[in-house]
Amino acid sequence: MKIINIIYLILLLNLNILFINSQSIRTIYIDSNSNFIAPSCGSQLNQACKTIHDAFWTFTNTTTNNSTMIDIQAVGGTYYNFQFPFNQYPPISIYNFNISVSRLQTTDNNDLPVIISGQYFSKSYYSSTSTSSFFRADSSIYPYGKTMNSTRVTFNNITFTQFSYPIIYVNPGTYSYGSNYFNISNVSVINCSSVINPLFYFLSPSYTPYGYIYPNISISNSYFNNISSSVSGSSYYIFSFNKGNVTISNSIFSNNNIQLIYGYYSRMTILNTLITGNSPTVYSQASLVTGYSNVYISNSTFSNNRIVRSGGGGAHSSSNDNLYINNVQYINNVQNSGGTLYLSGSTVYLSNSTFLNNTGSSGGAIYSYSGYMSISNVSFIDNVADYGMSLYLYSSSVYIYNSVNSYSTLMDPNRLPYNPSVVYMTASSSFGGTNFTMSDFPFTASQYYYNYFTMITCYSSTFSLYGNTSLEMFNSGDRAVSCSSCNYYTDNYNVNDFSEICSTSPSNPSKHLNSYGKVVLSFLIISVFMFLVAICCIIAGCKRSNNYSYSQIHYLTTSITSTH
Question: How far is the C-alpha of 171 from the C-alpha of 174, rounded, in Å?
């Protein structure tokens, strides 16, 4: 499968290169200090257009071929930093255009950044109900759902500031085939307050036909800081994706008071990215919210993020996802409820990661509702919650391998757990640990509502401890397990014998096959089935080849008898 994916990416890259090389490119210059405006500006640097709008209008008035790439080269400076009539600069319609905006690399020592200011933009004059935006690819303004199949937008080395409405708004409509690309590289988005809609807003098509190709969205080497919404609500984000192929890499999201990323029905990859110091508004779910998606997060850090809403995640809220997490650090995240990871119906593969000093109400590190998790080589250290300081499981299955859960002290003496337990499971949950070490820490019993620490609290669920799993306690009143209507199994009763506390499973519990075992078993079953089919075919063939009539049988019998 990996080889097929690599071949696919190589083919996609080559097609993209061929597409670009097959296009003609028209370069138009812009300079915030220029007095030249559309329709005759930008062909030379000394006649640069004043704004991106002027450059785009110059292009559309002088070029009839939409397949020509618009290469807007911007001289350093601040654009749109002046008062203008509300309808002077309406959204730029980029539907099926290929447009690139980047900072001009000059030799005159102009080190000024290219800043696009959104403070004077107001609602679009197109419609009082339309979403205003800077760039707009909206099929709803075209009759009969015009096909969006070749929209390409690139921002490179640009800073956006003081925007309240979307910088990019994409509505693919009913029909959307072809290749649509959005590339955000070396971009800074800073100091945006009173955000009304997602700043980068990619809507779902109203109908997804057979052959629909998800738009490709890439965010790399970019910085998002001090972005906030004046409205307390759960629908305000920096990025909102619905049915897209999304890659976020080598970027930073810091000190924002808004949800960062929303991705539903998408394929999302987050690499080498720092998400830190974000505190979304009171009704927010998490910094990162995903659902019904394939999500891969690697080599990234979530730190010092805070969510005050009940039922969300301090870092990530995941619903019905396939979630793959590898080498990710979750540090000092706070959630009044839920956990650092809030999982609902998701299948999670978590490896080589660390949860350190995270706080929640149910699940200091992870809260899982009706999901499945496979955890390997993960460290849970000094996480705090009223129920399940590391894991809170509700109707969930978790299998944990070669991992460590430890406490040295509580990070915040004012945040004391109500019912201190490392793993809390209920409602027919299942927990299995292999080579998993759990340990608590010395504490003064009078500090807590309860005067003991419990490693595993189990209600109406099942848990198993295999291999070299050990539960280490430092206080005389601590309890390894607490069971109520639970089943328990271990393959090492010399170390973990809780048979007097919990009901034990049969001495030979059913074993679970790994992926290799399942493949071998499937092959054997198919082979036996094919062998039986072959035998039946042979028998049937023999019967057909010896299908004598009664008269023939009587004749043969008489002949044989007469010879004797």
Answer: 9
Averaging pLDDT over each range in 54-68, 69-83, 113-127, 274-288, which range is the top one? 69-83
Which residue is associated with the tokens 């309406």? 90
Per-residue CA distances from 197 to 33, 141, 168, 410 (Å): 31, 19, 11, 39
Distance, CA of 165 to CA of 123 (rounded, Å): 8
β-pair partners for 268: 246, 295
pLDDT of 100-145, one tens digit each?
999 998 766 578 999 999 988 865 443 333 558 899 988 776 655 5
CA distances to 51, 62, 110 from 32, in Å:
7, 22, 13
Q: What is the pTM of this model?
A: 0.83
Q: Percent of the chain beyond pLDDT 70?
A: 77
Domain ranges of the chain: 125-284, 522-563
- 418: nearest Cα among 385, 393, 380: 385
For residue 349 the two structure tokens come to: 């593969």
- Which two tokens mark 113? 């950044």
Q: How far apart are CA 31 and CA 54, in angstroms?
A: 11
Q: Where are the beta strands (DSSP E) in 176-265?
A: 181-185, 188-192, 200-202, 216-220, 223-227, 237-242, 245-249, 252-254, 259-264
- 414: Cβ–Cβ under 8 A, 6 or more apart, which residues? none
Amino acid code (one letter) for 483:
C
Q: Which is more confident, 502 or 388?
A: 388
Per-residue pLDDT tens over the stretch 12-32: 444 444 444 456 999 999 999
> What secondary structure letter does DSSP report for 172?
-
Helix or strand run (H / E) with residue 55: helix 52-62
Q: How far apart, in Å, do the first and last CA atoms of the chain sit?
A: 72
Give the helix/strand (H/E) hosting 335.
Answer: strand 334-335
C-alpha angle 467-473-476 in degrees, rounded to nearest 5: 140
